[in-house]
Amino acid sequence: MNISLCDDNAAERSYIKSLVLDWAMQSGALVNIREYPSAEALLFDYPEHCPGILLLDIEMPGMNGIELAKKLRARAETAQIIFITGYPDFIAEGYEVEALHYLIKPLTREKLCEVLDRAVVKISQSDRKILVPFDGGEVTLPLREIRYIEAQRQYSLIRAASGDYRIKVPISELEKRLDGYFLRVQRSFIVNLREVLRITRAEVILRSGEAVPISRGMAESVGRKIIELF
């Protein structure tokens, strides 16, 4: 597993790296850790080194950790992002980049190990795919790529990053093939909660800019589920 560690403080990088290596030894994980003194240095190394886990300091000279995470997400990078910071003020912005967790300095071994364990579980879940037979053939579609699904009588319309797929499978049957990141927000719509940017009383706004209607009184349930997952 590739892990990138970005912190402008060399002593902090050394300490965090030692904790990660301890976790790897105890969990049996094979890790390749790369250290970076700045966000710019890490960005320069892409895409040659694509980590599954990113350990990012936030307050750094030049580009900060939040700005770096946004640039990587814009490239469709799906790494599990863990912010390690002395300041809790950026938590709202971390939601925008699907940060797995915020760890506040001084960092403890127990807390880091717990979050790394969660990251490994998330990575295994994000690899799930489904076989989608549609009008023009079939495709193996990663669940992460699905934005939402709309019921159209006996058909379901899957709207995904790679395109739209209309399949002759009822939405109730398709729902059984999805993972825990999908939620039926209305009788005719299932939303991938990874894609939700904002929630209103009547709809959820996705990162793509699309708006999906939700049932009356559903906004609070959607919000609670997102907090539980992320």
Verbal overview:
33% of the residues lie in helices and 33% in strands. Strands 2-1-3-4-5 form a five-stranded parallel β-sheet, sandwiched between helices. The chain has two domains: 2-126, Rossmann fold, CATH 3.40.50; 129-229, LytTr DNA-binding domain (OB fold (Dihydrolipoamide Acetyltransferase, E2P), Beta Barrel). It has 230 residues and is α/β, with parallel strands linked by helices. It has seven helices and 15 strands. It has helices at residues 10-27, 39-45, 65-74, 91-96, 109-126, 171-175, 219-229, and strands at 2-6, 32-36, 53-57, 80-85, 101-104, 129-134, 137-142, 146-152, 155-160, 163-167, 182-186, 189-192, 196-199, 203-206, 211-213.
Topology overview:
Elements (H helix, E strand, L loop, with lengths): L1 E5 L3 H18 L4 E5 L2 H7 L7 E5 L7 H10 L5 E6 L5 H6 L4 E4 L4 H18 L2 E6 L2 E6 L3 E7 L2 E6 L2 E5 L3 H5 L6 E5 L2 E4 L3 E4 L3 E4 L4 E3 L5 H11 L1
Parallel strand pairs: 1-2, 1-3, 3-4, 4-5
Antiparallel strand pairs: 6-7, 8-9, 8-12, 9-10, 11-12, 13-14, 14-15
